[in-house]
Amino acid sequence: MKRRSRVAAIVCVLLFVIYGVPMFWVLLTSIKPIADVSRGGWTLLFFKPTLGAYTGIVNGALLQAARQSAVIALGTTALVLLVTVPFSYAIARVRGRWPAVVLGVLIILQMMPQTATVLPLFQIFSTWGWLDQTYAVILADAALLTPFAIMLLRPFFRSVPVAIEEAASVDGAGRWRIFRSIALPMARNGLATTGTLVFLLTWGEFIYSINFFTTPENYPLSALLTQQITQYTVNWPGLMALAVLTSLPILAVFAFTYRFLKDGLAVGAVK
Amino acid sequence: MVQLVRMSVSSVDATNLGDVWKFTGFANLLADISGGNFTQALGRTVVFAALVTVIGIVGGLAAAIALRKSRRGSGVLLALMVFVWALPPVINGSTWKFLFDNTGLFNVVLHQMGLGQIGFLYDQHLALLSVALVNAWTIVPFNALVYRAAIMSVPVELFEAAELDGAGPLKQITNVIIPAIRSTTLVLLILTIVYGFRSFDFVYVMTSGGPGTVTTTLPYLGYVQAFTEFNYGQGAATAVTTVVLVVVFALFYARSVSKEEVGE
Lengths: 271, 264
Known about the structure:
Shape of chain A: globular
Structural class of chain B: mainly alpha
Strand order of the largest sheet of chain B: 1-2
Distance between the termini of chain B: 33 Å
Number of strands of chain A: 0
Helix content of chain B: over 70%
Order of helices and strands of chain B: HEEHHHHHHHHHHHH
Radius of gyration of chain B: 22 Å
Oligomer: heterodimer
Distance between the termini of chain A: 33 Å
Low-confidence stretches of chain B: 13-20
Number of strands of chain B: 2
Number of helices of chain B: 13
Largest sheet of chain A: none
Strand content of chain A: under 5%
Largest sheet of chain B: 2 strands, antiparallel
Low-confidence stretches of chain A: none
């Protein structure tokens, strides 16, 4: 008994180091003078903190990119929930062979590599003249995440007891009323989990963004970051500051929804 | 999807993308295979996915077991890990690209200890391993979270009974926990394999397929063929092959899920 807790404690400390140090290091680097970083050595820990990296990157273009990120992420989340909530409810309630078939198709769609969809979508958008349009990216992101969202939501709707719905229907509630006043509130953890994940995934999505936006002025934050990190000469403090700023909204959303997320993921992801 | 398949059997490049495509059958696929890039990329992808899967599953299980009992800090640790998982790949990729850099944490520590520098992302032999490690690093929290939920649903009596029988901690893990969560393992196994197989973001952000082509995995190869070389047809052929491989795993997954469905 004693020994086990000691081993477990060691693993925990190890995990803290493995996951904590990188995060800490990013924060630390973002407030360092650039000369200290390239010089290396012990200035890594002893340096004069500066917000130079932040003031260097915050400008009109960055704010524009942040706005673009917000529009894409919120738009996609709204669109995905709008489509998937009724669909998941239906598929959780319908009996027979069909749900199994639909589920199978959804699983396969969910596992499609994004690199396989970016090419045909690029071709389609270019014939429709949709390239460089924000709504095209929103639509593509929504299409990408819809199967995943349905898979995640379905178990939550399934766990709403049919008996309660039947009772309501005896009391004279219609299908829509039952959905709105019973199923929806009871599945709200699922909605929170799904909404959060869709938001987080779209916020960080860059493959569609860098390909469908042909002018870099339209890039969201994630695409901006990708563009800078793949260049050869890198301004590390600036880049780390950009990474920190890009993560801030994620931290905010995460802090609010973590308690749903923690249980919701385990329920939705595996079933 | 239909467009992708059509593209994969046609000759498409930048000049005729919006125009009529000439049907060339399996020419793209054959050019792919005889080019040598494809088979190499396939091999790398398998190695990559295997690394990610082994580390992801073993690490996830170890973390879940360590985090099973609530103790001081374990809640914070779990939140930290899940947060890392929730961060976009671009951010995690950037972070590690920096940590692995010549001026990054590892090399500075090595340097201070009087050892030379290691080009984690520039070395022929290390680059693929480095990217796979980072990929595994981001998937371990998710696997740990799912495993933890599965372990917590194991009845306490089982552990008590095992303890009465004199089973030590290791025995409890191998004889109680692992058999009890077998179905979870199966699902996570498939999910992690597919995750490793189609991984693109980290390669793109951290190494762009290099040095040379040593980190060019299948998804990355298809992307480069299409968007850098503008050989859309060949890129599509590579993408279709990746999809077919992923679908094979997806079918396994679908079967195990629908089995569960029948059981309910």
